[in-house]
Structure formats: structure tokens, C-alpha cells
Amino acid sequence: MEKLTIIGAGGHAQQIASAAELIACWGVIEFVDDAFTKERKIHNWSVVSTISDYIDSAEDGSKFIVGIGDNTTRVELQLKLTGRNLTPVTVIHPSAVVNPYSTIGQGSFISTQAVISMNAAIGDVCIVNSGAVVGHDSTLMDGVHISTNVALGGGVTVGQNSLLGLSVAVGPGLSIGANVIAGIGAAVVRDVPDGATVKGVPARE
Ligand SMILES: CC(C)(COP(=O)(O)OP(=O)(O)OC[C@H]1O[C@@H](n2cnc3c(N)ncnc32)[C@H](O)[C@@H]1OP(=O)(O)O)[C@@H](O)C(=O)NCCC(=O)NCCS
Fold first, then answer.
1. Which one of 199, 204, 205 would you pick to mutate in the ligand 1 pocket, going by the greatest count of ligand atoms within 8 A of its CB?
2. Which domains occur in the chain, in start order?
3. What CA–CA distances, in Å, run from 142 to 22, 145, 158?
4. Whose CA is nearest to atom 25 of ligand 1?
5. Do 116 and 122 contact (CB within 8 A), yes or no?
6. Which residues neighbour 80 within 8 Å (Cβ) at sequence distance 6 or greater?
7. For 92-142, what is each residue's pLDDT tens digit?
8. Which of 6, 24, 109, 194 is deepest in the core (most CB within 10 A)?
9. How many other CB atoms are found less than 10 A from the CB of residue 164?
10. How far is the CA of 104 from the centre of ligand 1 (A)?
């Protein structure tokens, strides 16, 4: 069985490791992290090197997933590693419900009890966190993070690298731009332009 290397070793990376362990298709699951000084264990998994040592030494085709919450950092690292001929993998927690007519891009993580509905399209390097629901025909562009308990209506689009905070709700058919931050608990009832930070009920810039 193959080895899965998780980039980062914090809480989010560990959440991915535990999901990957449950899937039981990996012979070894390990972390690489820039805080590395010497090999140490976190639960069943070892932190084995720095990220830059991994980039320098990994064999072509080695499988990885970036376990870092910050959207920009996560996307940049995946681009760097794929440029080195390493292969990003998608990890889906077994308790997630993923409609067979939806698609999920490379290097994305679908966490515990998330729901990906009919015809939804999840881009590369996305996070759909615990209990989040992506409505039918919705699209997440690359690098999006849908936090815990977010609810997206049907036909919603979320632009590149946007973060929807804990328990955000987005009405059906709405379009959220790139690099948007929606604050905890926001109720999005209108389209949101690129780069905006919105919060509140209803959500305002
Ligand atoms: C909206 C957000 C980005 C604002 O962050 P910030 O710019 O650092 O804002 P501050 O904490 O300085 O607060 C500024 C004001 O906005 C208010 N505020 C902050 N977050 C808010 C929210 N989600 N809804 C409503 N008001 C909010 C604060 O109470 C404060 O009001 P005041 O000036 O009257 O005291 C941030 O609070 C947030 O919700 N981030 C998302 C976090 C998250 O869910 N991450 C995912 C984890 S998995």
C-alpha cells in the first residue's frame, strides 16, 4: 500500500490523517511540517521532515495532500508540489455524503458528515468542513474553504480562495466572488463582489 504525505501537522492536518486512516487504503500516513526539528509522533502518525526537505527529496508521483487551513498558502503549496511532479490526492471522510453525480477536484478534503449534493462541482484544493452542506448544482472554485456547518442553497457559486466562516448560510442561486471572507454566522442574501468581507444577518460589507 502507498504512502500519503500530509503537508502540515496542525489540527486540520490531523483531521485529514484520521479520515485517511479510516479509508484504510494507505500503508503509511505521515506529516511534513516546517516546525520539524526531529522525528516525533502525533497519535499514529510521524512528523518526518520539513516541507522543503520533502519537496527536495520526494520521488516523482509521490502522493500528498496539503493540510493547511489558510487558502492562499494551501493553493500555493499544491501548485509548487504538482510542479515538482508530485501527485495531489482527495480525501473524503467516510461519514460524508457525496452524490455520485457531483465532482471533487484534486487535493480537496471533505470532512465528517459534509454533504455534497447533486451536480455540485468542488474545485481543487478546497475544504468542505464538518457538517457543511453544498447544495445541488453549486460550484466551488479552487482553494475555497467552506467551514463547519455552512449551508449553501442550490446553484450557488463561490469564487477562488474564498472563506465562508462557521455556520454561514447562502441563499440559492447567489454568486460569491473570489477572495471573499464571510464572517461567522453571516446570512448571505445578495451576490458578493470579489475581495469583499461580509458579516451579519443579512450580510453586509
Ligand atoms: C468577520 C471577521 C472576518 C471579522 O474579523 P476582524 O476584521 O478581525 O473583526 P474584529 O474581530 O476586529 O471585529 C470588528 C467588529 O466586527 C464584529 N464582528 C466580528 N465578527 C463578526 C461576525 N461574524 N458577525 C458580526 N459581527 C462581527 C465585532 O464584534 C466587532 O464589532 P465592534 O467594532 O462593534 O466591537 C471574523 O470575525 C470572522 O467571522 N471570521 C471567520 C472565522 C471562521 O469562521 N473561520 C473558519 C474556522 S474553521
1. 199
2. 2-89 (3.40.50.20), 90-199 (2.160.10.10)
3. 26, 9, 9
4. 200
5. yes
6. 55
7. 999 999 999 999 999 999 999 999 999 999 999 999 999 999 999 999 999
8. 109
9. 30
10. 30
In the block, cell 494551501 appears at 74
Q: Which protein residue has the closest C-alpha to ligand 1 atom 44?
A: 165
- Site to substitute for ligand 1 among 184, 188, 201, most atoms within 8 A of C-beta: 184
CA 44 to chain centre: 22
Q: Do the beta carbons of residue 94 and residue 25 sit within 8 Å?
A: no
Residue with cell 520539513: 50
User: How far, in Å, from the CA of 198 to the mean position of ligand 1?
Assistant: 9
- For residue 18, name the pLDDT band (cuts at 50, 70, 90): very high
How many C-beta atoms surround the C-beta of residue 72 within 10 A? Answer: 11
CB-defined site of ligand 1, < 6 Å = 129, 147-148, 165-166, 181, 183-185, 197, 199-200
- Written as nine digits, the cell of 117 is 449534493
- Is-contact 182 192, C-beta < 8 A? yes
